[in-house]
Structure of Mannose-6-phosphate isomerase-like protein (Cupin superfamily):
Amino acid sequence: MSLPRPYPPDTYHGEGGEVSAWIRRGDEPPEITYGSGGTCEYIATGDRTEGRFGLYRWTFGEAETGPDPHFHRSISEQFYVLSGEVRLYDGREWVTARSGDFLYVPEGGLHGFRGGGGASMLLMFAPGGPREDYFETLARGEEMSEEQRATFMLRHDTFWV
C-alpha cells in the first residue's frame, strides 16, 4: 500500500481566513465568438487564479473545427466533455468522447481536439498561462507571415507535430 501524496506547502498564512472568493455567473456572454459560430467563455483566467490554472468553456459551432495534434512544454491541458461528441487526440489515436469523458494531457503530451454540432467542453490549462491572447488573436483571423506565426506559436507554448 502506498502512502497518500502530501498536500502542497501552505500559501495562505493568515489566522482567520479572508473574503477573497469571486463568482462568474453562468449567464455572462462568451468573451469570444469565432467565425465558425463556436464560442469561448473565460470561466477562470490565469490572472484571476494567480496563475494556478485557466478554465474555459468551449462550445463548437455546427461544422467540425479544432486544432491538429500539438503539444505544450510548460502547461498541462485537461478536457471535460459537457455535451455532444468531441473527438480528442490522445497522442495515439482520435477517440470520440461524450458527456462526462475526461482527458488529461501532461506537459509534452501530444493532443488535439475536434468538435461540431454545438458540442461543449471545459478546457483547463495548469498553470494558468495567458491563453486569452492566443484565443483572441486566432478569432480575429489576423494575417501572419510564416515567421510571425512561428513566433506567435512559440510565445503561446504551442508546438505542432
About this structure: The chain has one domain: 38-141+150-160. Residues 3 and 22 are 34 Å apart (CA to CA).
